[in-house]
Amino acid sequence: MTRLDALEAQSIFIFREAFAQLRKIAMLWSLGKDSNVMIHLARKAFFGRLPFPAMHVDTHRKFPEMYAFRDHYAKEWDLDLIVEDCPPIESTDPTLPPAARSAARKTEGLRLALAKHGFDGVIAGIRRDEEPTRAKERFFSPRGTDGAWNVREQPPEFWDQYNTALTPGAHVRIHPILHWTEMDIWAYTQRENIPVIPLYFSKDGKRYRSLGDQDITNPVESDASTLDEILAELAVTKTSERSGRAMDHESEDAFERLRTAGYL
Amino acid sequence: MSASTSVSASTSTLPLATSSAAAAAKERELLRIVIVGHVDHGKSTLVGRLLHETGSLPDGKLEMLKEVSARRGMPFEWSFLLDALQTERDQGITVDTSQIRFKTAKRDYVLIDAPGHVEFLRNMVTGAAQADAALLLVDAGEGVREQTRRHAFLLHLLGLRQVTVVVNKMDRVAFDQEAFAAIEEDVSAYLGGFGLRPTFVIPVSARDGDFISERTARLPWYSGPTVVEALDAFTAPPSLSDQPLRFPIQAVYKFDERRILAGRIESGRLSVGDELAFEPSGATARVKSIEAWPGSAPTTVEAGQSAGITLDKDIFVTRGDIAAHGDQRPRAAKSLKVRLFWLDDAPLKAGDPVVVRLSTAAAPGVVSAVTSAVDPANLVTEGQASLGRNYVGEVEITLRQALPADPYHLNAFTGRVVVERDRRICGGGIILHAAREARLEAPKRGPVVAVDSAVTPAERVTRFHHQGAVLWLTGLPASGKSTVARALERRLFDLGGSPVYLDGDTLRTGLNADLGFSPQERSENIRRVAHMAGFLARNGHIAIVALVSPTRADREQAREVGARFFHEVFIRAPLEVCEGRDPKGHYAKARKGEIASFTGISAPYEEPEAPELVLDTTGDIAATLAALEAYLEEAGVLFPPDTDSPI
């Protein structure tokens, strides 16, 4: 088996475990490269079609290209699409820096959406190599009733046996591509011919490595305008993937506080 | 620190951006390494150093950290690179497993940094269970400590067989060769106790960068590899495709007209047309198709792949069933004997209700006995009624429904279990024995309390120059078991060791004089000898057992009793050769029908499937003995003749 084959097999195993062990689940679809790979993996796991909804928790501040992509592929992939709105910025923790407050809207939007639909499991496309707090995540991460992550008291997870026991009202975050890297995502996107939002490709010397809200996401300097060029760029780059995400960098612990409170 | 230690970058030695560089980077081999050891022995410092020296840090990261340190008024430490969480920075210890990537010229690595504090052993287990190999870190000044031993023991139980020992902080002992040698011997003796031999033992100073990737002049007496070279010397996990098929079912899908059985092939391979048996029900059917999306499906799938199949008949199959090929299927077991590590605060006791998870199956059950409990930190055996937090012990569990199980030595995936209590994962372990039916109730015992010996195992190792062991010599009558046993006994004794030869026939004149040769009596004979040999081994002696022991089941039981001390040695000689030898005239009598059920003639001999060693006795006894001695050194039982005291 090649490296990508092994990653794919493990992710498919996790999707099937989530579907078998939890009562009602949904997959978060943020429209970015990672969640598009996830949709493809899920379709492989379930032989062509997602047997649960794809949910977009919408800040209404995404790029127009992202909304166009969503509406086109929701149809083409026959997704059971749920779109839920985020609450206004005033409802977030005022002690957080501005961009982090923007991200915190999404946390609150997610919490409300989970409660509204009664999901006990939500599949999210985070990866360990994105940033250090995510490096500590489990494949199955039980959350409290408020959605919070208690990093100090995480249960053990080994030998592909996952924690799915829940107190009523709580949920589990499932992370099927936790063990992938940014390079793996692009290599797999290329191998499997998965569609890509054009914002990832260079235009006027810049491209987006990571897509978030328009007002808190910046492009990086790059001439990579094809998948091959992106892969070649990643093979030698020494800047981090989320360097264009403002909320990660406002203060030393801003992102960590966001995640403990339930951000993805 | 800001949340951007996103270390997925490459070494500076890679060529500039070209698509061939991209192609090469896409499919590079990936190895997962866990770093374990006692708290404060320098794990995070080592990781920080490795990242720096392999050019894996993002631009400006080091400068930024140095600036943060200066702002906080503390000297820069390499470990800051990993202290991503606020809570960790405050306490200065790693709380949870963290994973970081780096690469060498040879391949990519995931470094799993496991916490060294006893409070976080569950996190260490989480990290180590995902690894292909381990670095065990020991502080040169402090030597082997509690967590060093605990982690080493757990690595072994988690199935890791490749461990390199890194003796850190050599700068604190003035790069002294003797201090290093003492730790090397100490740690090698401990690992040898459960058959683990470190691939290398490397002296380093992680803080200063000696022998991480560079050979420095400060360790002129050391000629072995650097840490990076030792990492590159680990081997990737072998493919399990040639082992017997184990296909645990995750779910049965009926999204359309197809009824698809989905799961991951854990070992072996499966093809369209194969007849499969599903345990525990025992139902059989043929593979009609292999299903896949998108595109066309393969006709064969193998170990590691997630797959889906349809069958030619509608037999009842459910999540947790394991598909195998008819002649090599797992056992539907209602009683398990498990070597278990326990992570929960409240001890596990006989009578506790538990749920046992094995692969995708789960079954409720009850702990029928806790037969041993040991603290791996000091190898002290405690009272045997319960298994406390962070202890390892042997536990018997009676299940309410059968689970499809294998003994661990036959299949790692279907030979291990996770134990839940109160719906929480509290422990895990390997299956020593799986029985079809729940055992009959054990005879009522009086208040028996085991008493520890006044002499420690370490003292005996020092005197005898070897570890305790049970060498179980099995083979046809007249295959040469006694000859090999007696030659080895003499050799070990002459080396200053303490071998004890247990001959089957001799024991039948005393201890086992009440037993005949019916299958039940043969089993009882073996059970008694196994316990006697195990007792000797636990007390540092090498018990050399020469016993036909014709059935696999009986030998499996002897292995269970002998536990980590047990070594099965198959003495192999063709039947004609044995019959030609016939020193006791038994074959001749058996041929005439004067001895009933004589192994080899009128009763079967089941050859061992996975013995630790096979010895051919048709050749020279000196060569046979040399092979046996080499094995004992390899297995860590004997210490090479040129070493001084192993402790």
Automatic annotation (TrEMBL), chain A:
This is Sulfate adenylyltransferase subunit 2. Residues 25-218 form the Phosphoadenosine phosphosulphate reductase domain. Belongs to the PAPS reductase family. CysD subfamily. Its EC number is 2.7.7.4. Signal peptide: none annotated. It holds the Pfam family PAPS_reduct. One of its GO terms (molecular function) is ATP binding. Keywords: ATP-binding, Nucleotide-binding, Nucleotidyltransferase, Transferase. It is an enzyme of class 2 (transferase). GO terms for biological process: sulfate assimilation. NCBIfam families: PRK05253.1 (NF003587). It catalyses: sulfate + ATP + H(+) = adenosine 5'-phosphosulfate + diphosphate. The lineage of its organism: Bacteria, Pseudomonadati, Pseudomonadota, Alphaproteobacteria, Hyphomicrobiales.
